[in-house]
Amino acid sequence: MKTTIYDIAKAAGVSIATVSKVINGTGRISTDTRERITEIMQELDYQPSVVASALTGKSTFTIGLLIPDLANPFFAEIARSVEDRGHELGFNLVMCSTDNNSKKEAGYITLLRQKRVDGIIIATGTSIEGLLSGLADYNIPLALISRDIPSIEADSVRADDDTGAYQAVAHLTGLGHRHIALIAEDMELMTTRERVSGYRRALEDANIAYTDDLVTISNSSVEAGKQRALELMGSDHPPTAIVAFNDLLAVGVVQAAKELRLSIPWDLSVISFDNTVLAGIVDPPLTSVAVPIQQMGRQIMDMLIERVSGEKGDKRRIVLKPELIIRQSTTFPSKV
């Protein structure tokens, strides 16, 4: 016989009303209770009608996730952590890779609204701001991961980028480097601005003057990182160290060094951000600012589902501390 809501309530030792709240994503239910009921639903193969729930305005147990580039391992790991936590809580994930294209973003937002997703998690950039403001009329809860847009009423979880950059640059100045370059991303992103701020703060603490020529802007690809590194190393006064704002850019720096027959770290020290799987498999393995990706994914999903369940109140901003992981790509400069 087909499993019913009564079977779930009996197995979980809760009321039918509690099971209904979990199914429909309403009311205040503890995480432990929600997880126990969800596990029992899976064990007994209980499948509520998602279509019927959607047509009656109830939960579809679906969360949308917008990321800028699935080819970037950072966002791939973000998606995995969000999906894993959603699965634990009985929610499916609809993932949309936008390529930072505003038309794609608008199309995906419309698609997610039409699919009646219960909430949307945003990991894309600044062009999304206008699109998100229009979602308020549809009462779709929003959450931001690795981003924060002050004008949008949404919870957010991100890393302390200022501190992360400071840790990276302070590590290099402590080794004796005084000519340190940055390969940065879009300056309109809060992430980039905070990392540049941390870079400048670390230089100031080491009594090193900030120089615009050592900060170059790049899109997030291996090839772009390589080209920016070649430009920096081809200058009259090349840097002895480069901090790249993600692992893809850092891999590009490594490729540029090999093309120029430079030894890492003896001729050039390199530090990356994110500490994805790439950082550990590059030759040499990269010193990297580790962003707590798994923790970010779990927390943002928990926060969004609380909103889906009716949680009210001011938006919450969670900032997590990064950690510098020292590997074989940094050492004392051969030339100062």
Number of distinct helices = 13
Largest sheet: 6 strands, parallel
Low-confidence stretches: none
Find the structural class using helix and strand composition.
alpha/beta
- Helix coverage percent: 40-55%
- Fraction in beta strands: 15-25%
Query: Cα distance, first to last residue?
Result: 77 Å
Strand order of the biggest β-sheet: 2-1-3-4-5-11
Molecular shape: elongated
Overall average pLDDT:
89
What can you see in these coordinates?
There is one protein chain. Strands 2-1-3-4-5-11 form a 6-stranded parallel beta sheet, sandwiched between helices. Strands 7-6-8-9-10-12 form a 6-stranded mixed beta sheet, sandwiched between helices. The protein is elongated and about 75 Å long. Helix 11 links the parallel strand 8 (241-244) and strand 9 (269-274). Helix 1 packs across helix 2, helix 1 (5-12) packs across helix 3 and helix 10 crosses helix 11. With 336 residues, the protein is of the alpha/beta class. The chain has helices spanning 5-12, 16-24, 31-43, 50-55, 73-88, 102-114, 129-133, 161-175, 190-205, 222-233, 247-259, 277-281, 293-308; strands spanning 62-67, 92-97, 119-122, 142-145, 155-159, 180-184, 215-217, 241-244, 269-274, 287-290, 317-320, 323-325.
